[in-house]
Write a structure and sequence with these properties.
single chain
């Protein structure tokens, strides 16, 4: 007998798989960049972190939203398993072929398949199409596997492949310094990569323009008040106005020139004193030509030797666990976003006539009194 059953394998499945693969690729790219410390920090660091989180959340929703709808059109288990396999492939693209990557991919494949089957069972048992009720049946398993996979990949990033304790210590110090350097522009606007210690200290010393700009001479009616404001400003900056002997009667241009000349005289001395005080406070050797990166390596290395090195093999595990619990805190919110995106994708597919909801008469049995 020839079967007349319609196969669910159809090119239309690409409408579900293509956006899922694109969203998955974007999401795991964001994860890769975050785990490697490539998140950009600057003067608006919190804004950047917020945007990075929102973009990552959007990519996560685009990855999982259409994927979770496959059970509606994929009646065969083989279709659902193939869809999950395709959706997991981006993990293998953006992370090295190492043990923890394969473990993360296998974990995703197993839990996502489990979640898809739970969603399929719920859809089959319902008499109406209600994605807002069906999708949550499996999203818990799927999100749990995602945050575990991210934690495993983070552990792999910290641990490396077959690293010795010394190599692991060096890697952790380098990653800590890299993150610190990316955060420095938040606190020091003049900081740039490759800047030396003396350059950073010198950038904190005011210039004539910054001194005069902070006084606002136009707010005063006479030169006596302007002179008093100038002297007060110089005192606030730790400068002796009597030693500088600057008078506003000479005009703003001449005052600016005199301040620049006086600042230049003791700039070198001030930088030397500040560097020596900083080296004493941090208890590390510092030269004016040392880069900030080198200085941070010494500072972090010293603290690392004092408190962390003996426990270095446990640090990656603890950090990975910390990341897991942080992500776990946001799980409920992320699940709701993914489910909502699944509902939106279903609306879009119906609007473009890709799928439709039909009504069927389902035969049912019941027990009645015998006649």
């Amino acid at each position: 007998m020839i079967s007349t059953r319609v196969t669910p394998w159809t090119p239309k499945l690409a409408a579900f798989l293509v956006p899922s693969v694109i969203g998955g690729a974007a999401f795991w790219f964001f994860v890769q960049q975050a785990l490697r410390g490539h998140v950009v920090f600057n003067n608006v660091a919190l804004v950047n972190i917020g945007l990075y989180f929102l973009l990552g959340m959007f990519c996560l929703a685009v990855w999982l939203g259409p994927l979770l709808l496959v059970p509606y059109v994929g009646a065969w288990r083989s279709v659902r398993l193939t869809a999950v396999f395709v959706a997991v492939l981006p993990v293998l693209v953006f992370f090295p072929f190492q043990l923890w990557t394969w473990m993360a991919a296998a974990l995703l494949l197993g839990f996502m398949s489990w979640g898809m089957e739970s969603i399929a069972d719920d859809m089959h048992n319902r008499l109406s199409v209600q994605p807002m009720l069906s999708l949550p049946r499996g999203i818990t398993f799927i999100m749990f596997s995602v945050i575990i996979a991210i934690s495993l990949l983070y552990y792999q990033q910290l641990r490396g492949s077959n690293s010795t304790a010394a190599e692991l210590s060096t890697r952790l110090i380098d990653q800590t310094v890299t993150l610190t350097e990316r955060a420095l522009p938040t606190f020091y606007k003049d900081y740039r990569v490759g800047m030396t210690v003396d350059e950073l200290i010198g950038a904190q010393i005011p210039t004539a323009d910054s001194i005069l700009k902070g006084i606002k001479f136009d707010a005063f009616t006479d030169q006596t008040q302007q002179q008093q404001a100038l002297q007060q400003k110089l005192q606030d900056l730790g400068l002796d106005p009597n030693t500088l002997n600057i008078n506003v009667k000479q005009g703003e241009a001449q005052v600016r020139q005199q301040i620049d000349a006086k600042l230049q005289e003791f700039r070198t001395q001030t930088i030397d004193q500040a560097r020596q005080e900083l080296a004493k406070r941090l208890d590390i050797p510092l030269a004016g030509t040392d880069t900030i990166h080198d200085a941070l390596i010494r500072v972090v290395g010293k603290q690392f030797d004092a408190y962390v090195r003996r426990y270095v093999t446990f640090v990656p595990v603890l950090l990975a666990l910390a990341l897991f619990f942080i992500l776990r805190f946001f799980t409920s919110f992320l699940q709701a976003v993914v489910v909502w995106f699944g509902w939106v994708f279903l609306k879009l597919y119906r609007a473009f006539k890709l799928v439709q909801i039909t009504h069927q008469t389902v035969p049912a049995e019941k027990v009645e009194w015998g006649t």
